[in-house]
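Case study 2.
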Amino acid sequence: MSRDAGAGRNLTMPIATVNPATGRTEAVFEPHDDAEVERRLARAAEAAAEWGRASLTERARSMVAAAELLEGELPAVAEMLTTEMGKTFAAAKGEVAKCASAIRYFAEHAPSLLADEPVATRAADSRAVYRPMGPVLAVMPWNFPLWQVTRFAAPALMAGNVGLLKHSSNVPETALYLDELFRRAGLPAGAFQTLLVGSERVEAIVADDRVRAVTLTGSEGAGRSVGAAAGRALKKSVLELGGSDPFVVLPSADLERAVAVGVQARVQNNGQSCIAAKRFVVHDAVYDRFLEAFVAAMEGLAVGDPLAPGTELGPLALEAGRGEVEDQVADARAKGAAVRCGGTVPEGPGWFYPPTVLTGIEPDMRVAREEVFGPVASVYRAGDAEEALRIANDTPFGLGASVWSEDAGEQRRFAEGLEAGMVFVNAMVASTPELPFGGVKRSGYGRELAAQGIREFCDVRTVWTD
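Prediction:
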């Protein structure tokens, strides 16, 4: 299933907060009608002119104010995230803090990231300059409902663009909170707005002449839909899609640490992360020891109420998402995979799925070719390093990859040979404002964060003076 970012599927999904831990509907929202969407598009166009003319110092002042609001409201915002999509309260608090930190980063570093770049030519002066594009539509998913938006908004707003957010229909309270956050922080009216619309209306918004570009984080299907719409409209697009990240363990690895981080890397965000480790490729020399410790650690995780202290794994965000994971595991089991732990939906309310470890994976199994968006780890045995690299790259995706080795030669070989947009050595894949974020192959194109991300939604202009 991956992360449905609200484009290309679930066209009739209601805009509602449904608590994944209980299945209870907490709030239902009316979608914006055509007249309201038109009002918001018009306001975005007006705000783009004002915000684009603002100095970097003025923009930074408002963005820092947004970070301060987030920090001051952290517990309440974290509880909202947990209620809407089921992540543990501890993880939700970490997400809010990370968003505030990223906003501060781009407020501070935008002047250097967007600085003119003089180029030596025969002209008296020649340079590349970066200027805002205008309104950018962001089609965002539910799994990190605050961070995914901030990852786009912090650099794009500091670059002088304005944002139009079409968030996933199951996190409307987060979407509306963001709508108000930037207004309260002092950005011009219309500089950041939420559109409460279903995915069936995204294509028309992309086609609107006032929208200059679009970014999407979500499933491969959603990416194809939005990317095609942007192509028809001849507009810039950035797509961050699914991942089936390999976690490669070689004989020289610190096994104890690799197991501990591997469990964290698989079950972060209840297993619903594009950059979560999903395929564990383990060298034959350490396979048995790794598997035994890994299964024991997965079995020992505390599963329960995501708001309760000590809970390590909460429910999946959507009932349909749990059904998809259940079907993927059932397919693997039917085709001969061994279920080392988990694999059975528990009784009771909520959309919980247990930590699950599969071995004996074959290429015709769905878990081998699809992104599994839940706490399910597939463990592969590799005869040598060459086979480990082959298995790691045997996927249509290429978002992140992690390799565990204390051998400098192996580290270099895998850092170069892994087909992924991000390679982490002796660490789990993560996002940080200082480094570009994005993938290759079917994991999408373009980059978020860092200098590359803030420039994605800039018009790059050549200025020549004789």
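The longest strand covers residues 125-132.
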